[in-house]
Structure formats: structure tokens, C-alpha cells
Amino acid sequence: MSMSTLRGERKRKFKAEINVVPYIDVMLVLLVIFMVCAPMTNPSVINLPTAGQSTQPPSDYIEITLRPDAASTISINSKAGNNGNNRQESKEEAKDRKQLMQKLREYHDAKPELSVLVSADKGMIYDEVIQVISEAKKLGISRVGLATK
Hints:
Elements: H1 3-7, H2 21-37, E1 60-66, E2 72-80, E3 85-94, H3 97-110, E4 115-120, H4 126-138, E5 144-146
Parallel strand pairs: 1-4, 4-5
Antiparallel strand pairs: 1-2, 2-3
């Protein structure tokens, strides 16, 4: 009798599974690499150009005030005399941008030499401010500026 008959001779089954341990090791190495490299790049930082202050601010200008929850206002401001205080000649409200541009056209036709100053609230949507500036430029106004603190 041979030894193989005494042990009961079983046929060996082959495993049809993929060994995933090397793949896990590779993925952990990639994860560590990305975790180390991620703080080095900061996509939230935007480098905006700096603008210098104009040499001489205009003494008379048309001011457009934009607020997120209220109607827009448009007015003509001028410096009154030697004390340098601003004086408003007229102030009108516009319910929508079409009405605002119509009033701006009237002001520009009356006094074409005046520049436009856009005062927008911090909560305004950036696109709306840019569209007002763009439409003012389309009306032929050469000097359009943004008010800052």
C-alpha cells in the first residue's frame, strides 16, 4: 500500500480570487502622495490686479447705487464749493435695470462730460455689477469707475 491511499488523497482546489493586497498597498501610497501634495496648491487664492488711485477724482459724477434687496438708485453728485462736501442734485430710484439704463441715458444726454461711479453693496452678485458697467460703456460713457471704502 502506498502512502497516498492511507491519507485519503484529496484533489486540491484552485482559488479563482484576485489577490488585492498589492493593489491596496499601491492605493495607500497614492493617497499619501496626494495628502502631501494637496496643501501645497491653494486653488482658492485669486491674484487680482491692483489699481492705483486716479490722479484727480472727478468733481461731478453720476452715481449708481446697487443693493441686493432694494431698488437701484441713480443720482448726480457734485462737490459744493471749497469745503469739498458732496451735494446731490437729483436722486431717482429704478425698479429694474432697463429703467436704470433709461435714466442713465437721460443723465448722460443732459451732461455728457460726467463720469459714472458705481457703488455696489458687498452682497451684490458680481455679474450684475459688471453688466451695469458694460451697459454704461455701451451708452458711450468713457469713464466708469467702482466706488470702494
